[in-house]
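ARCHIVE RECORD
Type: protein–small molecule complex
Small molecule: pyridoxal-5'-phosphate
Source of inputs: curated submission
Record status: active
Notes field left blank by submitter.
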Amino acid sequence: MSKFWSPEVRELTPYVPGEQPRERLIKLNTNENPYPPAPGVEQALRDYPLDHLRLYPDPEAAALREALADEFGVETEQVFVGNGSDEVLALSFQTFFRQDKPLTMPAITYSFYPVYCRLYGIDYRTIALDDRWRIPLQALDGESGGVVFANPNAPTGHGHGRRAIAELLERVSDCVVLVDEAYVDFGGETAIPLIQHHSNLLVTGTFSKSRSLAGLRLGYAVGSRELIEGLERVKNSFNSYPIDSLAIVAGVAALRDREHFDACRERIISTREQTRRRLETLGFEVLPSQTNFLLVRHGQQDAGQLFTGLRERGILVRHFNTEALHDFLRITIGTDDEMDSLVEALEAICH
Ligand SMILES: *Cc1c(COP(=O)(O)O)cnc(C)c1O
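STRUCTURE (tokenized, with ligand):
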């Protein structure tokens, strides 16, 4: 605490990201991809003329937005890009959710959303998940300043199909509905086609998980022109160049390689389902997942002790110290070898 801080800064409770350890651990705590980015990314970075780093990047990041527009079958003007989807989310909260009515979000979802609410002074209310840890979409109504949730949701892993999102949009048309699709490539269904008929739908996504580029910081939003124009206004009042020149070429190269993308996500999905069966054999309850992580709990073992036991064996997972989630561990899907080590370590701890 310092007297030099603005009053609001004294009141902030920042988001705490998963640990990035300096020692070599099997890292299953922040949902990174265990496989390298597409080979074309390395080539694009090698080919980049270093002399061009003298110049500011394209403030519009046009090449990247065009590549994303191609990928999703939309117009370039329907795509916004940012320095990680966290930045895109922050700008979205500022652009759309500072309303008289409170924002609505599920009680369990990405824990950065309440942090943005406090940063921007946004009032919010939460909707409890149902008894199977799903977001009850029918409980989200139009009497809000906005609606936000992750789909598939984090850290539960459950995802709703496009049809369910369409039904929500039939009811909620007077405020922005933000669907955070950080994990959609691991078995979810994207809502992006719905933007053509719903000007209040904003879908965000990231290169951090399914495209193995968490270190590059690239995220995007897809929505109607009016929503994207609003985001541009706020972005251009804050930072004209959130995407650097190297990130633009690397992002374009990552989007070009569909084969690598499909191969990596299929491997992760198959490893996930194999890991699910092995953990169930060890006595874990494993929630269904359309993501690159599993949320698990053990009837007899304390999650905090499991976390510590794994850490002692060189494996890092995520334990949330909240009332709703303290029985659970969230385990990122790594390579098959990494999951072998995880299962062996859990066997040793449980016996
Ligand atoms: C990882 C994650 C993000 C942030 O992704 P970045 O693009 O790396 O900032 C956003 N939303 C959810 C739900 C996530 O899990």
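CURATOR ANNOTATION: The chain has a mean pLDDT of 96.
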